[in-house]
């Protein structure tokens, strides 16, 4: 059987063949070569140029390894693993809020559309697209969905290892071998043997640390929000359906070929001429209210429209860990944690503007 060996800097040599090899050559997955894994974080961490393609390959590798370790049927799971991010927008999560607002779809919904587009390729290997979609959307109850998307999933393991490696931030280093060797399935549920508890707790701590130091870094957030505002602007003449299918390069070319504000943002991102922090505030606004506040600040500061950005982070509610520990009895993971779960880190709203308007905007923000 034809196969290829792909060398990955995180997992080493990965053998791909059959369906996985064909899927990797599909337009849906080749597109991911030009979708950065963590948006514009490379403005802060210059090495963070890795892509969703690499991550998809890594998630496949880990899924395949778990399937072999636990003697599971792996064809459908491997397909779900390699396809799980195929619907990502340009710059990954940076613009996902727009697809949620205008299309009522997130990257998972868009991924399921990609899976349906690959129906012929999947059925060639006796895999129904609906089976893959159930796993990706977590509609498949039990261990299959938990392996791909859960509190103990291969998606999280790979992105922590990969993002840590490429950013150079050590917080994401986890004991992946210990976790993989102590994962078990009982009564159709994925869990961890008591021997792997510390490794899993280390992974959860690593995730919190990576969010604080990398994913929500203030400069990266400003870059992402600048890009978001430029795309909001071009939505007047570009359809959101076209934007969600673009790659990073295609989107930047669209901004470059635009006029006015979008082209100015393209220039600023290209040369890292970013807006500067004016203030941190605790605000909770929807898109419409956020735009009203930005316009109000620009008007009162007497600066051009779009020259103030109010970036409100999308924070999920504190998660209740759905991890089972297999001891003499099946127990919840919290019972074994050494470091009790603290309150989630609260990320404030960032108000930013070009350097030359900083003092004007600061005075207005302090007043209102």
Please tell me about this protein's structure.
By secondary structure, this protein is of the alpha+beta class. The chain folds into two domains: 3-216 and 318-336, Hypothetical protein af1432; 218-316 and 347-367, no CATH class. 49% of the residues lie in helices and 11% in strands. It has 18 helices and nine strands. It has helices at residues 18-24, 27-30, 52-70, 75-83, 96-102, 107-117, 119-123, 129-136, 143-148, 154-167, 176-182, 197-215, 218-234, 240-243, 248-256, 261-270, 287-301, 358-367, and strands at residues 3-8, 12-17, 183-186, 189-193, 276-281, 309-311, 324-326, 330-332, 349-353. It has a four-stranded mixed beta sheet with strand order 3-4-7-8. Helix 3 (52-70) packs across helix 10. The longest helix has 19 residues, at 52-70. The protein is globular.
Q: What is the CATH architecture assignment of the largest domain?
A: Orthogonal Bundle
CA(first)-CA(last) distance = 68 Å
CATH superfamily of the largest domain: Hypothetical protein af1432
List low-confidence stretches. Answer: none
* Shape label: globular
Q: Helix/strand/pairing class, anyone?
A: alpha+beta
Name the average pLDDT: 94
Explain the layout of strands and helices:
Layout: E1 3-8, E2 12-17, H1 18-24, H2 27-30, H3 52-70, H4 75-83, H5 96-102, H6 107-117, H7 119-123, H8 129-136, H9 143-148, H10 154-167, H11 176-182, E3 183-186, E4 189-193, H12 197-215, H13 218-234, H14 240-243, H15 248-256, H16 261-270, E5 276-281, H17 287-301, E6 309-311, E7 324-326, E8 330-332, E9 349-353, H18 358-367
Parallel strand pairs: 4-7
Antiparallel strand pairs: 1-2, 3-4, 5-9, 6-9, 7-8
Helix pairs in contact: 1-4, 3-4, 3-10, 4-8, 6-8, 10-12, 13-16, 17-18
